[in-house]
Design a protein that fits this description.
Length: about 110
C-alpha cells in the first residue's frame, strides 16, 4: 500500500491504524473507484449525505474533493440551497459557510 495515496489524516493513521488502512484501501481504494458512478457524481452524493446528516467534521474535506472532482462552486451552492428545504436550514447554512471558506482560501492561493 506504499504506492497508494493516503486519505486518512496522519493523526488517525498513527492513533487508529486499521481504521486509516480501511479508509485508504476499502473506502477510497475500492468504493470510490467503482465504475458505476464517476468521481464527480460520488462527490456530489457524498456532500449531499454529509450536509443532510450534519456531518460537518467530514464535510470540509469532501467539499474540497468535490471541487477537485469537477463539481463547480455554483453547483455545490445550488445543491446546498436545495438541501435547505429537505435537510434543514441550519445544515445548509453550516455547509455553505464551510464552502465559502474553502473557495475563498482557494481564490487567495490562486
Amino acid at each position: 500500500m506504499t504506492d497508494r495515496k493516503k486519505f486518512a489524516p496522519p493523526a488517525i493513521q498513527e492513533f487508529a491504524p486499521k481504521l486509516a488502512e480501511v479508509t485508504d484501501t476499502v473506502l477510497f481504494g475500492d468504493i470510490w473507484e467503482r465504475p458505476g458512478l464517476s468521481p464527480r457524481d460520488r462527490s456530489l452524493v457524498t456532500v449531499t449525505a454529509l450536509v443532510a446528516l450534519h456531518r460537518t467534521d467530514q464535510l470540509g474535506f469532501h467539499l474540497g474533493k468535490a471541487l477537485e472532482n469537477g463539481v463547480t462552486k455554483d453547483e455545490l451552492v445550488e445543491a446546498i440551497t436545495h438541501l435547505a428545504f429537505y435537510a434543514g436550514w441550519p445544515n445548509a447554512m453550516s455547509a455553505v459557510t464551510q464552502l465559502k471558506v474553502i473557495v475563498d482560501k482557494a481564490d487567495d492561493s490562486a
